[in-house]
Amino acid sequence: MSIPGAPAGQRVEAISNGEHISLLREGDDVGIRMPEGEAFGLRKVPLPVALPAGFGWIGNPQLVLRVPSVAEVDLPQVARPLRHHAALAGGTNVNVVEVVSPGIARIRSWERGVEGETLCCGTGSAVAAAWLARTEGITDWRLATAGGEVVRVVLSLGEDGAWHDLWLSGRVRRLGVVHPDAALLLQMQG
Fold first, then answer.
1. Residue 106: domain span
2. Number of domains composing the chain
3. Res 93 pLDDT > 80
4. Beta-bridge partner residues of 108
5. Could you tell me the CATH number of the domain that includes residue 50?
6. Is residue 51 part of a domain?
7. Residue 145 forms part of a structural domain
8. Is position 125 within any domain?
9. Which of 171, 105, 172 minimizes the C-alpha distance to 143?
10. DSSP state string for 87-155
């Protein structure tokens, strides 16, 4: 199986934290099949917002707001009160998205834990694309991130907001090699 609409590539199955993970490499692009099932998908927006909005769970909560221009958004001012809103126990990531043309959007993300804007939020991009699939009827999106990268999200979306075969892909590059301390390896074996 390949990413819908993409040529066949090298597929790898792995287990991470007990979950089966599917990866697909096509040249310099790597795609990951995001989790799906009853717990994952689009949900009702749990708080009042003035902008068109979507909300989804993809292992973490993601609030998506549609704006005319992501460049003109004062993201700290918009995101902080939503990130910590009382309606969301534990808070949420906040993403602003601007549709540029059919299937093409820009996105900026404010991530919990980081408590600030990040260059790219993969799970935020995935939920944003799922919400855009629902609102725009397009299931193949390319999102330009604040870091200048373009991520692609392809999915099938059910009427109930559940997604299937949601693939998140983009260019990857090696930043370095990590060599764990020998003591850590011994702890993992014992």
1. 35-165
2. 1
3. yes
4. 96
5. 3.10.310.10
6. yes
7. yes
8. yes
9. 105
10. TSTT--EEEEEEEEETTEEEEEEEETTTTEEES--HHHHHHHHHHHHHHH---EEEEE-TTS-EEEEEE
